[in-house]
Structure formats: structure tokens, C-alpha cells
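pasting for the record
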Amino acid sequence: MPRIPARQRLLEIARVATEQFGRLGYRATKTADVAAKAGMSTGSLFTYVESKEALFHLVFLHWFEMSSERLPDLPVATPGPGETLGVIEAGLAHIQMPRMRTALADEQPADVAQELREIVEERYALIERYWPLIAVIERCSVEMPELEAAWFGLARAGTFEELGTYLKRRMAVGMLRTMPDAEVAARVVTESLSWFAWHRREGRDSALYDDDAVRRTVIEFICAALVPQDRR
């Protein structure tokens, strides 16, 4: 049987660990289960990661820092105090939504319908790409107050605030349909995107819908709800 390269092994470990931490949380995830699902013994797993803490750290290295060409030294060392949180905070800060930032800086968009569509598409694409990692953060936040503060208090709250500010500004001048509360509207948009781009994939509904049809329908639905007829 051909020997599996260390790079391929480490990427598979990171993938399985992401899945397990995202589904079970930190405490309930067992290194033995990760090893088994990655097709190796627990002893072999520890030649790639030094500990369960290192396995958790590897998840964020994989998503934020590690490329297939640039691997960490093996075994991945147990992180020091605050080291994993630092990788998470830096990684979340690096994820940008340029279309939203441009819209917030533009008071008179030439085409508000196209502007909104691009913002919604941008958000859907980010959730669709990062949902396995977001699942890890949200599930493990219950057990890690510092992670909860970084995610719910800063990163997630910031995205709600940006979208709420954008909607409020466009609604105030009649470019978008007025809603009783712009922040609630921002929440409705975000939760709709999150369910279809992420949560449906974790349940029995995952195979019921075509991904492309879901994406196009959700984006069209949100834009139709918020853009007045004369602006389309």
C-alpha cells in the first residue's frame, strides 16, 4: 500500500477535526474518534498533533494560515495561553466584505438594486465557504467564554451592525423599502442566508435542494423583498 504523504494526512486530520468539533463541541470531541475517521490509530494521530488542544489549534491554522505548501512543524505543538484565540481573531479580522464597505462609503449608488444584490451575494458566498469553521466557533463558544466574546461580541455583532447601518441609510432616503426596524431586517437577511448556506447542510434537508438553485432563489427573494418596484 502506498504511503500517504504527511501533507495529505494533516489536511485530512484538519478536515475531520473541523467536522467533529463543529458537530459535537470541544469537550465531547474525542481524539480517538478523529483518528478513526481520519483512517489512523490514535498513536499515529499524535505524531501529527501533540494533544487535543493542538488538534483544536490545527483547525484554525488550516482555515486561516495553513496552505498545502506551507505546513507547520510536526507534531503541531500544544498552543500557549491565548495563542489559538489570537489565530482566530486575526483570521476573522482578515475576512473582508469589500462590497459592503464600498456601499457604506457611497451615499448615492447608481443602481441600488445591483448594489444590494452584490452585498447579499457576498455574504452568502462567505457563509457558504466558511460554515464548517463557523460551526466550530459557535458550538465551542458555549464552553469557551473568550471565544464567545470574540465571536458573538465582536465579529458576528459587527456584521449585523454593518448590514443594519446600510439598510437604515438606504431606507431613510427611499432607495430600499422601509421596514419597521432596519436592525431586525438585517437579522432576517443574515439568518436566512445562514440557514440556506449553512444549517440546511447539517440536517436531512441537505440533499433536497440543488445548491445553485438555493443560492439564486434566496438572493432573489431577499432582493425582491427590499427593493421597491420602481428601483428594479
